[in-house]
Please model this.
Amino acid sequence: MEFKTFVFYFLSTVLVYASLRVVTLRNPVHAALHLVLAFFSASGVWILLQAEFLAIALVLVYVGAVMVLFLFVVMMLDINLDRLREGFWSYLPLGAIVALLMVAEMSLVIWATSSDLFDHDVAQTAAGYSNVQAVARLLFTQYVYPFVLASVILLVAMVAAVALTLRGKRLSKSVSPAQQVFVKSKDRVRVLQMPSEKRE
Amino acid sequence: MTLAEMQFVPPDLYPVSAEIFLLSMACLILIVDLFVRDKKNTLSFVLTQLTLMGAALVTVFTSARLLSLLIAVVLGPEAATDLTPRFVEALGIPVGDEITYTFSKMYVDDLMGDLLKLMLYLTVMLVLFYSRAYLLDRAQMAKSEYYTLTLFATLGMMVMISANNLVTVYIGIELLSLSLYALVALNRDSISATEAAMKYFVLGALASGLLLYGMSMIYGATGSLEISAIAERLFNGQANKTILGFGVVFLVSGIAFKLGVVPFHMWIPDVYHGAPTPVTLFIASAPKLAAFAIVIRVLVNGLIVVSQDWQAMLLILAVLSMAVGNFAAIAQTNLKRMLAYSAISHMGFMLLGMVTGVVGGDARYALNAYSSSMFYVITYVLTSAGTFGMILLLSRSGFESDEISDFAGLNKRSPWFAAVMMMMMFSMAGVPFFVGFFAKFSVLQAVVAAGYLWLAIAAVFFSLVGAYYYLRVVKVMYFDPPANKAPIAAPMNARILMSANGLAVALLGIFPQTLMSLCAFSLLRSL
Model:
C-alpha cells in the first residue's frame, strides 16, 4: 500500500469517527470540538486531492473563525439539553424514514448518472503548480473590482456593528481608586451641632 | 494560454473616479468623526453633503457625453456643439466610445448610468436635508453613522448602476442591503425598528440566495458571468435552454424581491412602517433608481434574447402588484404603511414598461417602453421623497406625525405645505398636469402601442382605485378640523427644499418634455 493511500484511510477514519461523535456526544462543547477535528481531517483529504486553497480556507474560515464563534455561543448561552432531547423517540421513526429515503434517492442518482464515477483518477497538475497562486492571480487582476468592494462590505459590517452595539459611557456604578485614596475623614463623617432638648 | 502567461492590463480608473472619490470621502468622514466631539454631528453632515456634491461634479466633468448633454439641455443644442469641445479640451476629458468598460469589463460607464447617478446624488442629498431636524430632535438617532452608512449605501447603488457582471451586480446589492439593514436598526431602543430590521435582514438574505442561485444557473448555461458576453452567447445560441430557463426564474424572483413587487412584497409594509422615518425616506426613494438600473442591465442588456420568458413573469408580477398594492392601501390608517402599499403598486406600474419592450420578437417599441419606465421611476422617486419628507417636516421631538389623522386640518396650520402635499398626492394618483400623470400616460402609451389593450385598461382601473386613498389624505388636510394646532417647527432649509420639491412635481407636470427626452436619449445611447 502506497503511503498516500495510508494517509487517506487514516484521515477518513478520523473524519468518520469525529463526525459520528458530533451527533452522538451529550456535551455540546465536546461535540463542537469534534466538529473542529472533522473539519481539520476533511481539509487533509482536500490537500491529498491537490485542492490546497480549499483546504486552507476550510481551516482558516471554519476552524479559525466560525467554530471559535460557535464555541463562544455554546459556552455563553445556557442551553437546556434535556429540553432539546425531549421527544427523541417519538420523532425517531419519521426521521429514520426521511433519512432512508434521502440515502435511496442519492444512491439512485449516483447509479443512474455516473457508473464510472470511481474509475477516474484525480486530474494531476504539474509539479510546482499552485492553486493559491492561480486564485490570487485572478482575484487581484480580473476580479479586483468586486474584491475591493467585498472589503468595503466588511467595513460596513464593522461600522454597523459598532453603531448598533456601542453604548458610549458605561452606565453601571464603578469605583475609581485614584479618587478613593484622596478621601478625608471630613468627607465620611458629618458632625451636627444640635441644641440639647429637655423632656417635657 | 495559461494563467501565468496572461498579460494583465491595469484598469482604467478614470470612469470609476466618482466611486473612488465617494469611497475615500466615506472613509475620511469615519476617521474625522473619531476626533470630533459634537452631539449634533454637524461636521459629518456637512462633509457628507459636500461629498455627494463633489461626486456629482466628478461624474459630470469626467464624462464628455454627459457634459455635452447637460449643456444642450441648459443652453440649447448649438451651445453644446460649440462649448463641449472647449470644456473637454480644457479639462482633459478623454473622448472615448459611447460605452466605456473598465476593470476587465466588470464596470460599464454609459449615459444611462451617468444620468441615474446624477439623480441618485440629488435624491440622497434631499433625503439628508429632510432628515436633519428629525435626527437632531432624537438623541438615540443622532449618530454620525447615519451619514457614513448612507454614503456606503450610495456607493452600493452606484456599483449596481454601473454593473456589467453578475458578480458586480450581486456585490452592489449586498453593499446597499447591508447598509440598509443597519440603518433600519439604528434606533435600537425601538422594538418596532429592531423587528423591521430583523425581517428585512432574513428576507433579504433569502432574496440574495435566490439571486445567487439564478446567477449560478445562468453561468452554468452560458459559461460567463459578464452581462455583455451572456447576451452574445445567447444570441449565437450557445446556451443550455433548460438551465437558462430555471436561472431566469430565480433571477427574476430575486430582482422582484429587491423591487418589492407582489408576491415578494411582504417586507415592504413592515420595513417602511417600523423603520425610523428618515430611513424609510431613504429606502423608499434612491434604491428604486438602482433597482431599475439592475433590471435594464441584467434583463434587457443580458437576457434580451429570452425576453419572452421574463416579460411573461414580469407581466404577472406587475398586475398582481397593482391589484394588491392599491386595494391593501385603502385599509391603512398609518401614512407610512399606506405609502408602502402605494410603492408596491407604483413599482408594478413601472414594470409595465419593461413588459412591453419586445413584442413577438420585434424590438421596435423597446426604446419608447424602457424610457417611459425610466421617466416613471425618476418622477416616482422625486414624489416619494417629497411625501416622506413632509412626514419628517411635520414631526417634532416626541411626535411622529405618521398617522393620516395627524395631517387633519393641515390647511389651517400651514396652507402652503398643505398645497405642496396636495400636489404630491395628486401626482401619485395621476391627476392630469402633475408629473405622475405624464409618467402613467407614457407607460400606458407604450402598453397600448405594444397591443396589450386589456393591460392598459386594468392599469387605469387600479389607478382609479388608488386615487381614492390619495384623495382621502387631501380631504383630511382640507376638510377635517385640526387635531393639534402647534406651528410647524421645521428648519428653513428643509422648508425651502420641500417647496422646491413640490414645485418640481408641478413644473415637471407642465413641462415633462425635457426629462422625457433626456431618458429616451440616454437609453438610446446606452442600449
Summary: Chain B touches chain A through 33 residues (CB under 8 Å). DSSP finds 22 helices and two strands in chain B. The longest helix of chain B spans residues 191-222.
